[in-house]
């Protein structure tokens, strides 16, 4: 039970740091063994709540094994939906290179391209080799 509480605290610390874009704190937590796929007390992982405007943060989380294909438990959106919707194309590209799928629908049946702030730029990324991957 004590190990579970420690893991919960570490997951909360990691998701807080990721949401704030605190790259050094995220790196420190990952280096000390925090699981990047552990959910916080709100049932979300660090990559789901990370500061989207920081592609280096996405790279770091992916380097340590974060799964970019875990849907939000409420909306069934994926990190690629969030990055596309907010227009963070650099982060979106990092996520796709890290294995994120662009062919997963959210709760409303929408793909990332459907919610993209810049759909033409997203199509250009796909044309330039940032391809979807199937599971």
Characterise the protein shown here.
The chain is globular and about 40 Å long. It is mainly α and about 140 residues long. The chain has two domains: about 1-55, Alpha Horseshoe (Serine Threonine Protein Phosphatase 5, Tetratricopeptide repeat), CATH 1.25.40; about 70-135, Ankyrin repeat-containing domain (Serine Threonine Protein Phosphatase 5, Tetratricopeptide repeat), CATH 1.25.40. The longest helix is centred in the first third of the chain and has 19 residues, at about 1-20. The termini are far apart. It is built from eight helices and no strands.
User: What percent strand?
Assistant: under 5%
**Number of DSSP strands?**
0
CATH superfamily of the largest domain: Ankyrin repeat-containing domain
For this structure, the quaternary state is: single chain
Distance between the termini: 35 Å
How many domain units? 2
Query: Helix- and strand-based class?
Result: mainly alpha
* CATH architecture group name of the largest domain: Alpha Horseshoe
Major sheet: none
The stretches of 5 or more residues where confidence is low (pLDDT under 50) are 131-135
Principal-axis shape equals globular
What letter string, H or E per element, gives the SSE order? Answer: HHHHHHHH
């Amino acid at each position: 039970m004590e190990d579970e509480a420690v893991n919960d605290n570490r997951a909360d610390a990691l998701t807080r740091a990721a949401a704030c874009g605190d790259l050094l704190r995220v790196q420190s937590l990952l280096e000390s063994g925090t699981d990047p796929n552990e959910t916080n007390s709100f049932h979300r992982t660090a990559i789901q709540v990370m500061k989207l405007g920081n592609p280096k943060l996405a790279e770091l989380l992916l380097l340590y094994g974060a799964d970019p294909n875990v849907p939000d438990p409420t909306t069934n959106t994926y990190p690629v939906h969030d990055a596309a919707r907010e227009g963070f194309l650099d982060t979106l590209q990092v996520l796709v290179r890290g294995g994120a799928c662009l062919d997963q629908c959210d709760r409303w049946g929408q793909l990332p391209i459907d919610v993209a702030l810049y759909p033409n730029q997203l199509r250009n990324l796909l044309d330039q080799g940032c391809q979807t991957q199937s599971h």
